[in-house]
Design brief:
single chain; alpha+beta; HIT family, subunit A; three-stranded mixed β-sheet; 25% helix
Length: 332
């Protein structure tokens, strides 16, 4: 029989439709096809991107040249821009403001064909380091209230360029979904005087049935009420609400477990389209005792259709316990 499950943080309901139960081999998705042609993110084409904001690994002092391991550049077609004033105003009952913020592209590797699953732990640690450094820099802008880092892999998941990259958008407001998490976490803490994420980690480690893998600092699990088959959360075992405070040692530990996570996903569902999102605390609200930063990995295996749009429910044909066991049992 199907189950209705409620997320304990945002109280979102999902339907685990066991009658539709699917294993990895049952999912059909359009395989990511390599496109031959000009790539603005490849070495040698640095002149085609806006001037770099951050670079790692280049030995020379010549900006916007080759020899780099990772670059960060402004998005050529930004959703939000740094220049200007917010100019908040209303039109009757409607509110609006100028599109002030930042939109950046993290070019994760010089290798056009490398996916996260193929990268070394050291290269992945540079990606997370770039996230941390850019969040810290942009947080100094008093207009910025939240910074979202995300990755779209393959065109079916929203990627417009094939070369491995992720994006950062700094916003003058806290997004509604993040507010839901923060408010839900605060409500749990007010009632129980504990962090809901810390409680989830303790309970999941004790039962083990939804754990994918763990190391000394981090745990990867399939959440109790997942929106998508093979949805995974990567959480620090230590309490921290702000990703930008992570030190280099923990960055390397995070890169190691994330590398194993993405290798398992790629082996279970070769070249599956996916998104991942870094959820961290709002800017200038440090050290929240009720919120816990984490990374959500969402393979794109189901469609959002009329029922989901109309109800806010998600239908997931694969129980998280089965997803976790399948991923956990994969031999790398």
């Amino acid at each position: 029989m199907s189950q209705l499950r409620k997320d304990p943080i945002v109280e979102r309901w999902v339907i685990i439709a066991k009658e539709r139960g699917k294993r990895p081999s049952d999912f059909v998705f359009n395989q990511h096809k390599k496109v031959v042609g000009f790539c603005p993110l490849c070495p040698g084409n640095e002149y085609t991107t806006p001037n770099e904001i951050l670079v790692y690994g280049r030995q020379s002092n010549i900006p916007n040249s080759g020899g780099w391991k990772l670059r960060v550049v402004p998005n050529k077609f930004p959703a939000l821009v740094v220049e200007g004033e917010l100019d908040k105003r209303g039109e009757g009952m409607f509110d609006k403001m100028n599109g002030i913020g930042a939109h950046e592209v993290i070019i994760e590797t010089p290798d056009h064909d490398a996916s996260i699953a193929m990268m070394s732990v050291e290269q992945i640690s540079l990606i997370f380091r770039a996230y941390r450094d850019r969040i810290n820099d942009l947080s100094r802008d008093m207009r910025i209230k939240y910074i979202m880092v995300f990755k779209n892999y393959a065109s079916a998941a929203g990627a417009s360029l094939e070369h491995s990259h992720s994006q950062l958008i700094a916003l003058p407001i806290v997004p509604y979904l993040i507010q839901e998490e923060v408010v839900g976490s605060a409500g749990f803490h007010k009632y129980k005087d504990r962090c809901v994420y810390c409680d989830i980690i303790r309970q999941e480690l004790k039962s083990g049935e939804r754990i994918v893998l763990e190391n000394n600092e981090f745990v990867v699990l399939c959440p109790y009420a997942p929106r998508s088959p093979f949805e995974m959360w990567v959480l620090p075992k230590f309490h921290s609400s702000d990703f930008n405070y992570i030190d280099d040692t923990k960055l390397m530990s995070l890169a190691d477990i994330f590398s194993q996570t993405m290798k398992r996903l790629d082996k279970a569902l070769p070249d599956v389209p996916y998104n991942f999102m870094l959820h961290t605390g709002p800017v200038r609200t440090p050290n929240l005792d009720y919120y816990h930063w984490h990374i959500e990995v969402m393979p794109k295996l189901t469609m959002i259709a009329g029922f989901e749009w109309g109800t806010g429910f998600y239908i997931n044909p694969t129980p998280p316990e089965e997803s976790a066991k399948f991923l956990r049992d994969i031999k790398l």
